[in-house]
Amino acid sequence: MFIQIRYIILFGVLVIVQFGYSQTVKLGVTINNLKEATGAIVVSIFNQENDFPVDGKEFRKMSFAVKALSVTCTINDLKRGDYAIAIFHDQNNDGICNLGFLGIPKEGFGFSKNFVPRLKAPAFDDCKIELFEDRAITIDLIFR
């Protein structure tokens, strides 16, 4: 009888610990400084330093229609850890970030931590955010 009670208590403690420690978090992202309420916002989430900010190598990618000059999205079910976010305003809805001379984006773009690149694309550490609990960030679009 004593052994059974001990196992029941141990099982109860394990269940409480498991439920008390959420395995995933969510990230709210508000995007400001849009010039027009058309097209779509494309959000790319990276969790590997070597993949950032390469199109096609993102951990998760999502897009949604723009209906206002400031938009908010929520990214659910992210494991705790480090991430970097790259976004662009796909004004013409062609699914790509259109580039001009010297590879400079023609459409609005931005990065987590509101990092502003100078002469080259940012590194993962420039834009890295730590997610250990639900949080919200704001990214202001850059136009060049």
Q: Would you kindly provide a brief summary of this structure?
A:
With 144 residues, the protein is of the alpha+beta class. It has helices spanning 2-20, 124-127; strands at residues 24-32, 40-46, 60-65, 71-79, 81-90, 109-111, 129-131, 135-140. The protein is 16% helix and 37% strand.
| Strand element count | 8
Q: How many distinct helices?
A: 2
Name of the top-level CATH class: Mainly Beta
The name CATH uses for the topology is Immunoglobulin-like
Shape, principal axes of CA atoms:
elongated
Taking all Cα atoms into account, the compactness measure Rg is 20 Å
Provide the helix percentage. Answer: 10-25%
Secondary-structure element pattern, one letter each: HEEEEEEHEE
In round numbers, the mean pLDDT is 90
Query: What is the terminal-to-terminal distance?
Result: 74 Å
Describe the overall structure.
It is a single chain. With 144 residues, the chain is α+β, with helices and mostly antiparallel strands. It has one domain: Immunoglobulin-like (Sandwich). It contains two helices and eight strands, in the order αββββββαββ. The protein has helices at 2-20, 124-127, and strands at 24-32, 40-46, 60-65, 71-79, 81-90, 109-111, 129-131, 135-140. The strands form two sheets. Strands 2, 3, 5, 6 and 7 form a five-stranded antiparallel sheet that branches. A three-stranded mixed sheet has the order 4-1-8, with no helix packed on it. The longest helix is centred in the N-terminal third of the chain and has 19 residues, at 2-20. The radius of gyration is 20 Å and the shape is elongated. The N and C termini lie far apart (74 Å). The relative contact order is 0.25.
